[in-house]
Prior knowledge:
- By secondary structure, the protein is an all-alpha fold.
- The protein has seven helices and two strands.
- The radius of gyration is 29 Å and the shape is elongated.
- The chain has one domain.
Amino acid sequence: MSARFDALSRIGPVARPLLERVDEVLVAYGAPPGHPIWAHLRRLGTTPADAVAFFVDGNPAPLRAAAERLRAQAEAYRATPVPTEVRWEGSTADIYAARATALRGHAEVMTGRLGATAFYVDEVATWWDESRTALAVALAEVLTSTQAITVTSGGAAVTTETLVAAADVGAHVLAAVAAAHDDGQGLLRGGADLGELAFVPPADPARRVDATIDLHH
C-alpha cells in the first residue's frame, strides 16, 4: 500500500498537535525520575514528535519500484548471450574464449547478486510498511487515552499530572519506534552483499603463432 493512503498517513497529522505538546512539556520540564521514557530517549536520541515525523515522511513505494527495476536488470543479464566458442583458432581465439568464459561467469554472478539485492530492497520496503502500521496503532492508542486528554486540556500550565501524562504518551510512542528500530537493525545486519562486483578479466593464455580461420560459403 502506498504510504499516502495507509493508516499512518491519516492518523499522523491528527496526532501531531498532541505529540508536539508532549515534546514541549518534555523539553521544558523533563520527565519524572525513573520513568521508562528516559531509556527510549537515551537510546533513540529523538523526541516522540520527531520520531513519528520520520516515519510519516517515509514512503516504501519507491523501494518496491527499485526492486522491480533490479529484477528487470537481472533478467537482462540472464537473457544476454555471451558466446564462448569461435570459428577460428590461435592465440586470439584462446584469449577471446578465456575472456568470454569469464564474462559469462561474471554475468551469472551479477544476475544472482541483482536478484538478491532486489529481494533485500523488498524486505526493506516491507519493514517500512510494518513499522508504519505498528506506529499507527500506537498513535491510535495514545489519542484515545486519558493521558492525551490530560496533556491537551491543561492549557499552558504544566502540573505533575501533566508531566507524567506527557511522559506516558511519549514512552508508548517511542516504544513502537524502538521496536521498528530493532527490526531495521536486524534487517541491516542480515542484508544482501551490496558492495561493488567488479569484473576481473583472466590472465591471457600464452600466445601461439599458428592461426586458422574456418570460413563457410
